[in-house]
Amino acid sequence: MKYARLLFANLFRKKIRLSLSLLSFFAALLLFGVLAAVKAAFSAGIDVAGVDRLVVINRVSLIQPIPISYADQIQQIQGVKYVTHSNWFGGIYQDPKNFFPQFAIDVDTFRKVFPEFVVPDAQWQKFLQDREGAVVGAKLAERFGFKVGDRVPIQGTIFPGTWEFNIDAIYKGKDGNQDESQFWFQYAYFKERGPERVKSTVGWYTVRVDNPDNAPRIAKTIDGQFANSPYETKTDTEKGFATGFAKQIGNIGALIFIVGSVVFFTLLLVTANTMAISVRERTSELAVLKAVGFSDMTVLWFVMAESLIIAVVGGAAGLLVSMALTAGLSKSAALASVLPIIAIPFSSLGVGAILAFAVGIVSGLMPAYSAMRLRVVDALRRV
Amino acid sequence: MVRVDGSGTSSLIQVRGLDKKYSRGGEEIHVLQGLNLDVDQGDFVAFMGPSGSGKTTLLNLLGGLDVPTAGSITVAGDAITSMSRGALTTWRARHVGFVFQMYNLIPVLTAFQNVELPLLLTSLSKSERRKHVETALGVVGLSDRMQHFPRQLSGGQEQRVTIARAIVSDPTFLLCDEPTGDLDRKSADEIMHLVLTLVKDYKKTVLMVTHDPVVAEKADITLHLDKGALVESGKLAGAMAGGAR
Is residue A177 part of a domain? Predict the structure, then answer.
């Protein structure tokens, strides 16, 4: 502690340089935090995907329908517990920017396949009895101020016309990790009002199996069963499906890794250069410290400590602000429809802190080593 | 008593057969050649000589900042020429006070903090350190400038802070490398008055390199470096004059 004054006096010697160095770490860790949150948001669906669920889509593409008659055939396969189906609706509420996903669901089987979505029983019963009824997620309800009993018009885009729904229920995720921004309505209503082409088809099936170990076999059986038919299927685990869906946007993980690596490598070079300049400027002072009896190791730690303080303070500030920023973003209604769950995972905070610390160590190492090896006689001769 | 013939037996500083060679651009430069020196407690020695004669090299060797090519230096019984780099650092902290021509104060520390630096290496408490620093700054007449930064001091004041830093841990001897070289005559006289006070009143041993004959005149004896060896050219002051050197 008795060296603290010397340490901080050196640190604050060039305030603009210190501010810029701190800002470098701040910006890098802020970016890291936000990118980590984005990555986590994109993989949120993957992480919460049920291990005992399969998704069956048209082999050609997700947007191609598959016959509703497949439901009974799939149900007959050994190991299949429940089968439910869904359709993408793609409507607009008031304005195109108010995007949120709407699904026509099979009300008889939906809750058996997706038990993680919790709907009060009384509300669900009301929904079952209301052909124009809808269930909305808690976040979606909060975003638009929907209340049970409200009548909501949705403008169809794929299925033209104004579709009116009664909000009968509001669902929540079981543990807070689920997407609470969806809008469900009855497949029966969809079939009734939709065009002829959708009356005997569904968008996709979600299959719940008795044992996750059986999932590969069941997936193979399903696809085998409909092979060489006009509607061949492609079955994957829900996790595989979610991963594939996320990859349609791009390899977010790789992109974030590349951006992060470039940022940290640049930060390393900039900080190391700054520390080297800082040490070079103080050559005679370091020599004097050694002359009066400061050991080589003490001088080394002086330089290392400066580098580490900049890294830790700047990095911590960046991570804290990124946490605040993502907390703010998670409340953004517009973003919630695209990335329903946005938060920095604790593991990423840990990785960020370790990265900042490591950059602090590595960038300070060479200048600190030079300071340690400095010969007093040579240094004083240079003055 | 100062001797240059290697005949001393119980001197505070004992230098025997000191050699120092440099290699520069493939050429070997023999700066010091078989140099002998004996300095007793309380002596004030001035070293003179042309540029490149090895004055600063000798001072660096005496202060444990450099190692000789051959020969030995013993200070108060410690053979510093056989010490490791780490041991030399510890030894310097305890035994040597340095005063440099360019002051070499840390610009971001106040006069008080600069003087306190050598004491940070000791086990003294904060209040004890404060007491020592205040005493040292009092000796050099800067009690009223303790919280000033170097940039707020004149050259003479900065050099006095350097001297306070050199004496604060009560070292065995002081090494001064052209302490007045960067000062005007008035400031130089003040610094020399201070050095003489340290020698006379505080019984400090001082070894000083200078180019200035007026400054050298103040020392008990002036030694010239000539062809790598020391040659006596001055006289010991007062009653000591005429003794064997």
Answer: yes
Q: What ranges do the domains of chain B cover?
A: 42-67+83-237
pLDDT tens digits for chain A (383 residues)? 788 888 998 889 889 999 999 999 999 999 999 888 888 877 665 555 667 899 999 999 888 899 999 999 999 999 999 999 999 998 999 888 888 899 999 999 999 999 999 999 999 999 999 999 999 999 899 889 999 999 999 998 888 889 999 999 999 988 777 888 899 999 999 999 888 888 889 999 999 999 888 888 999 999 999 999 999 999 988 877 776 666 666 677 788 888 888 988 998 998 899 999 988 988 989 999 999 999 999 999 999 999 999 999 999 999 999 999 988 887 765 666 556 667 888 888 999 999 999 999 999 999 999 999 998 888 877 54
A268 and A376 fall within a common domain: yes
Question: How many structural domains comprise chain A?
Answer: 2
DSSP tally for chain B: helices H, then strands E = 7, 10
Inter-chain touch A377–B118, beta carbons under 8 Å:
no
Q: Do B120 and A6 touch (CB under 8 A)?
A: yes
Domain that holds residue A201: 60-231
A287, A374 contact by CB (below 8 A): yes
Query: Any residues with CB less than 8 A from the CB of A84 and at least 6 apart, and which?
Result: A105, A106, A109, A110, A112, A113, A114, A205, A206
Please indicate whether, in this complex, the C-beta atoms of B108 and A291 are within 8 angstroms of each other.
no
| Closest A-chain CA to B109 | A9
**Do A38 and A86 belong together in one domain?**
no
Q: How many CB contacts within 8 angstroms connect chain A with chain B?
A: 65
